[in-house]
Amino acid sequence: MILIEKKIVHSIKILQSNQIEVCISSIIEKDNVEIAKTFHRNVLCPGDNILNENEKVQLVANLLWTNEVINNYKLSITKNI
Question: Which of 21, 73, 29 is closest to 47 using CA atoms?
């Protein structure tokens, strides 16, 4: 009996405020047959540290989050406080 756990980026969504929603599937397989799957969602905000994120997530963030986008996001937060 071999148990394997995989974590796969299931989806990457760009939200209206240029935040990035990441959905990760955690899959457990027993003898190459999927026996369980769970999902975890996380939202990243412009300017967040992305060094520990999946390379696809990093690519999207680096393309989307220009200095202007990051500054505008930070401004919008301070206006809403």
Answer: 73
